Amino acid sequence: MRSIIFANYIARDTRRLGATIKARLISVYVFIEKCLRLSCLNHSVSLICVFDVEHSHVRFLGNLVLNLWDCGGQDTFMENYFTSQRDNIFRNVEVLIYVFDVESRELEKDMHYYQSCLEAILQNSPDAKVFCLVHKMDLVQEDQRDLIFKEREDDLKRLSRPLECTCFRTSIWDETLYKAWSSIVYQLIPNVQQLETNLRNFAQIIEADEVLLFERATFLVISHYQCKEQRDAHRFEKISNIIKQFKLSCSKLAASFQSMEVRNSNFAAFIDVFTSNTYVMVIMSDPSIPSAATLINIRNARKHFEKLERVDGPKHSLHMRMR
Amino acid sequence: RPFYVEPRNIVDEDTQERVSEEASVMNSRMQYYSRLTGSSDRLLIPPDHVIPAPDEIYVYSPLGTAFKIHGNADGSGQNPSIITIFAIWNTMMGTSILSIPWGIKQAGFTFGVIVVILMGVLTLYCCLRVLKSRAAIPFIDTSSWEFPDVCKYYFGSFGQWSSLVFSMVSLVGAMIVYWVLMSNFLFNTGKFIYNYIHHVNVTDTDVSTNGTDRVICPYPNTEHHANHSADLYRTYGNNTEDVFDQWWHKTKTVPLYLIILLLPLLNFKSASFFARFTFLGTVSVAYLIILVTLKAAHLGFHLEFHWFHSTDFFVPEFRSLFPQLTGVLTLAFFIHNCVITLLKNNKNQENNVRDLSIAYLLVGLTYLYVGILIFAVFPSPPLSKDCIEPNFLDNFPSSDILVFIARACLLFQMSTVYPLLGYLVRVQLMGQIFGKPYPSVFHVMTLNLIIVGAGVLMARFYPNIGSIIRYSGATCGLAYVFVFPSVIHMISLHRLGQLRWPSVVFHSFLIVLGIANLIGQFLM
């Protein structure tokens, strides 16, 4: 899942994880620690695993660090690790994302680990938001999916008290994964409503058909504005996929993707760096407006949005744990 | 499982989208995931259950069966020749087989046989032209095209709309014929069951032969179907038989009872349920052939050859009413709108011409067999050959058991093909006009009511299926059999600079034949 959301190549040393992905448990623990302006990434460094746990981290939403941990389904290691490093891991956490495998045969054990995580969160970071993803839903028969998800959701909500958990059902083979992550990101953006209002004003001023705001690392759509109904409901995911593929190609040349303009007789689309955490995509259906005009508009809007982002400081910590 | 989505032109607004939304977003996903791993890595290969099923492809021929094609994703066929030949035979064989004896009678026996052979060869040639029309188009991938797409390529939107109109003519004509026939069969079946239950000894007022194998002449006067005067003057008494006859009338009431059965079936969104019954068509045709053989064995041959003038009981061998036969045969040999799809699944594509010719030969032989036998064994001394009905089963009374079974089988088979034809009309018409096959319940209901209404009106006032078949056949054949293939062939040769005047003369002659065929229906 990490590779798909963050557009990383699946590294060679995750080969052995291929087997565990097929096994009943996927254990990927992802912790994001708060990274204040003043502190550095010490925490993440110190958590490099001793046991057979894979760990990596990715910058996310600007000043978030997403730490991903995959324990390869080895329960004893996990247990030990958690008891020993528990306080370190669960301190300063704002969000926990826990991923369940819907095919898992050991429901009890999954719930047990989940509960221990929740206890740790309650102790160390009681304000954290909790998200649960029920993954691999495509392996369930179509007519049973809603039923099974509802069951899980009820169980999880019950177990999570007093914390509130939001549940999503996901699969990498349909749009649910993208939508779930988009919702999570949407809830993490500090002043997202204000962002949306400003985006709408921006779009109306420059007479754009549609304006999208993407998160820089994952190209998840943070917010968007459209002036009329569009035909294709899956267009966000498709754009995300296309740009991530392009980023992969760019990374092969050790170049980084900055901007793109696509133009033909019916429309013009501009993708450009916007603020430190975001990219913007502007669609103009009036091809007579010269590109330079739109680019100037984007550049001017950039300053305004940067100010918006700087207003709220970083207070982000994402925990993601996959099972 | 292989999965391929053809690249779509997002600038042109295509009214009919070939790619479903699900398929296109899955395609985008798969392209992205494939970049994340090495090509030999099976980690992110989509499992079979997430790949959307290929779209249903139906193949139909008017008055024939319509069935689903199981295409291969990579486009190559996997059917051996014998299966392809059988599929073509099965699709062409339809209810027009019931009208062939009447057609031969209209043209005269010898002339009729000659016309059948000639029309078979002619339509076969035009079918080959249709088959090869795709190959002459350069630079474009035509692997998923059917003949209407080729027409659109050559003639623009005129070609698209005209091919839609002519396709509608053939489909709606077929549906009207089906309604008339189904009313007929339902009436006879009901009458048989009623007579059987009440042990009524039927004393028909119709002219008929004596003996156990009765053959009747329903309309002995030469003014066949213009007025049903016998019916009109019949007084209805109060006994149960007459009440039954009043409520169970072939043209007045039974067509209306059919509405209750068939109108709901037309509103189904998908026709895949009905496509499962297409094997019934083969069974029915096989049973008809057996029936004809048995009747021939029982009745014996009654043939006399009078070459140019008619006698009391016989018709001349050469008659001027032969355009009626050519009209019927145009529809009987019609497969031009789906021959490309049918032959696409042939394993050895180089044998396409040979397989198509064999299929046409078999179809022609079947028609000749049924036509000649019924005509020859029609008992002429008591009855005139002129009595042969456009639906030859009408020449047997409703008490005949073998024919009853045939009628019941055909009734059931036709009631499964009827919704399929309705579905094809809806998909083509709605798809072209509104862009999607099911715009709203209101639109679909209106369309169904119009079609059913036309069927009921025809069944009530003009139940002569021979005429309906020949008019719709000549009209639809004008476009799909004669004009379009010839013109497209000439244009493609002209673009290649290979057009020679014998070819022009020959193909123009074909077009003239097509027009003459249509005009002949109205004159004769």
TrEMBL record, chain A:
Keywords: Cytoplasm, GTP-binding, Lysosome, Nucleotide-binding
Annotated localization: Cytoplasm; Lysosome
InterPro entries: Gtr1_RagA, P-loop_NTPase, RagA/B
Catalysis performed (reactions): GTP + H2O = GDP + phosphate + H(+)
Coiled coil: none
Residues of the signal peptide: none
Its job: Guanine nucleotide-binding protein that plays a crucial role in the cellular response to amino acid availability through regulation of the mTORC1 signaling cascade.
Assigned protein family: Belongs to the GTR/RAG GTP-binding protein family.
This protein's name: Ras-related GTP-binding protein
Organism in which the protein naturally occurs: Polyodon spathula (North American paddlefish)
TrEMBL record, chain B:
Entries under Pfam families matching the protein: Aa_trans
Transmembrane segment boundaries: 82-102, 108-128, 161-181, 254-270, 277-301, 321-343, 355-381, 401-421, 441-462, 468-492, 504-523
Protein keywords: Amino-acid transport, Disulfide bond, Endosome, Glycoprotein, Lysosome, Membrane, Metal-binding, Sodium, Transmembrane, Transmembrane helix, Transport
Compartments where located: Late endosome membrane; Lysosome membrane
Domain Amino acid transporter transmembrane as annotated: residue spans: 84-194, 241-516
Highest taxon of source: Eukaryota
Topology class, membrane: Multi-pass membrane protein
Reactions that this protein is recorded to catalyse: L-asparagine(out) = L-asparagine(in); L-glutamine(out) = L-glutamine(in); L-leucine(in) = L-leucine(out); L-tyrosine(in) = L-tyrosine(out)
InterPro entries associated with the record: AA_transpt_TM
Family: Belongs to the amino acid/polyamine transporter 2 family. SLC38A9 subfamily.
Protein name listed in UniProt: Neutral amino acid transporter 9
